[in-house]
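Duplicate of earlier report; Sensor histidine kinase input re-posted below.
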Amino acid sequence: MKKRSSRAIWIHLISWAIIFILPYINYIFEPERFISTNWGFILIPFSLTFFLFVTFYFNLLFLAPKFLSKGRNFLFVVLIFLGLGVFFAYNHLLIYELLLKTIAKIDQAPKRPEPDKNWQFFARFILPSIVYSLSVLVSTILYLLNERRRQSESRQLMELEKVATELSMLKLQISPHFLFNTLNNIRWLVRKKSENAEESILKLSEILRYIIYEVDDTKVALSREVEHLRNYIELQTLRISDGTHIRFEVSDAIGNPLIEPLLFIHFVENAFKYGIDGKNVPEIHFEISPIEKGIKFTSKNKILNPKNTLENEGVGLANIKRRLELLYPGRYELEIKSSEDYFEVLLNLHLNEN
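Output:
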């Protein structure tokens, strides 16, 4: 980034150095003419070029960003034409009011015949219009190109942030606490020689395989995400004596759209975290249903651990909200309801699929 910025500065400096030198190119080959030339013929080209220089960067750094980029095109055009009028006045003041009158006072020779009116019109209006328009046009095109590059870089940075956020979320999906508890439960089932021990290992294997190997792609089929959630729910249910009040319903009308992976697991994990205490019968309900051009995920659980509040969920909830902002900007609604007895999450995703 710094290297490209430095190169752009050098290009600007060299380009304007050439433009400022061009009116004096003849003096390089005939230096004696520089001494005998009236000072006005030396300063005026520099002054006019300096006006174009100021116009170029005023448009590049102020007018275009303030008006053109914000859709105020009419006001932008009006200001550009006002600038052209100022350039006409500036050109007339320097050449016809200062230079020619000064020469007339110094030069006592008889007056020369006035130039052709067509040439005067060209010199006063056509030529200034051309050079002024080129200055404005080039600066405007340069601004648009820079803005396009900036937006492209912004999108790339967002993509990098999205990837970083996804990687961070992958680490948070299954916490070490969950893994340790699951492994302890499996060890307990093995010691009891329970037939659920092998099933627990298989479920855990499926969960880890999905997270590690199958979510590298941008999107996954909803059926794979549902299977992942079922494995997680069934694994948690194995350690509960009465799991009849734990339900996961998926509507048949939802189809199999592509979605971003691991969007719901955080809420499922929370439901088990706060909805099970080992003493009372849990009430946990998950549902995925269709909405217009999208899907709806619902999670509702009875809070069985009043002392185990949701205060520690601030970071996790902020992460999932940030991830939704990156993946579905302006295309999701997340509503979280909490009471003394129940905790509920409603998430609508608008997939915009044809």
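The two ends are 39 Å apart (CA to CA).

Merging into the original ticket.
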